[in-house]
Specification:
By secondary structure, the chain is mainly α. Helices cover 65% and strands 0% of the residues.
């Protein structure tokens, strides 16, 4: 629980005042991650902490490249966050594909993508939470992203390209939750 409390302190300090809607999203993603935490035993707190921190790279105080997974991971590494947490933030929600579109693949390669069920759960939590922090479906979340950014924006192009990977992570996590007797309510 110490890790989760620390994560909330960092994220709240960076996001709550300058980006209140992003802060609401992060809190909703953390609640989703908390639902999946039982799947990960001792790493249950890690999935929640990463969910809390996944979007800190949007914070104006730390945004350098304009690519929030990279900016967030670099900041967290600089303040001494655990390596695994940093790597999960860097690669959340198929960031590798967006990095390629942005010409930042080499920079993102500083961080390892662990490709585990825990990573899937983080992607699931993000892709099933609205910008206001409420639950949604991945289909509605992707549609909202495309509407918010517009059809020609790089983010919309990325989300279309990443669809199979994102959907796969959501489906695998839903299957794991169902097998563990955790409902979708």
């Amino acid at each position: 629980m110490e890790l989760v409390a620390w994560a909330y302190g960092v994220a709240q300090g960076l996001l709550q005042a300058p980006l209140p809607r992003r802060w609401a999203h992060v809190q909703g993603v953390a609640e989703q991650a908390r639902r999946s935490a039982v799947l990960f035993g001792d790493d249950g707190d890690l999935v929640v902490a990463v969910a809390v921190l996944h979007d800190v790279g949007y914070a104006p105080d730390i945004a350098e490249t304009g690519f929030h997974p990279l900016d967030g991971a670099r900041h967290l590494r600089a303040i001494g966050a655990p390596d695994r947490l940093v790597h999960l933030v860097a690669h959340h929600s198929c960031a590798v594909l967006e990095a390629e579109l942005r010409g930042l693949s080499d920079e993102l390669a500083e961080f390892e993508d662990e490709k585990t069920p825990l990573r899937d759960a983080l992607w699931w939590a993000d892709m099933t939470t609205t910008p206001d922090g409420t639950r949604t479906t991945i289909t509605d979340r992707v549609a909202e992203i495309q509407q918010r950014y517009g059809p020609e924006d790089l983010v919309s192009c990325f989300i279309r390209w990443a669809w199979p990977e994102l959907l796969g992570a959501v489906e695998r996590t839903n299957e794991r939750l169902e097998a563990a007797g955790i409902g979708q309510s």
